[in-house]
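Model it.
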Amino acid sequence: DGRGQTFGPFVAGAEYTFYQVGGGAADIGILFEYLHYGRNALQPPTAFEDDMFAGVRLALNDTQDTSVLAGTFYDPSSGETFINIEAERRIGQNLVVEFRARFFMGASPLDPTFALLKDDYIQFRLARYF
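Modeled.
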């Protein structure tokens, strides 16, 4: 409740995993979410007022704990799109290599994410744990 009228968010989602795909150890998960915020035009904008998310999770179930998660948020009314990719894998006992990528597309000057259009990034990280 604030700035006038009461509003409430709603998020619902599901994930279904296919286990031991192709007879191997790998699992593939399919993800879907719907996000809705009931705000009016006088309240602060949000990037997820009526959006959908779809993604895929791959877990190789190997000794290196290799995994990949890729998905996209999409706003059907404005065409705004946010793509997220994450991957990681252990190297030996103490090292982990990680990859992260984020891409913003399709926002018009009136959309809350317009300021992020040039903020895409790709990150590689090597971490040592002791």
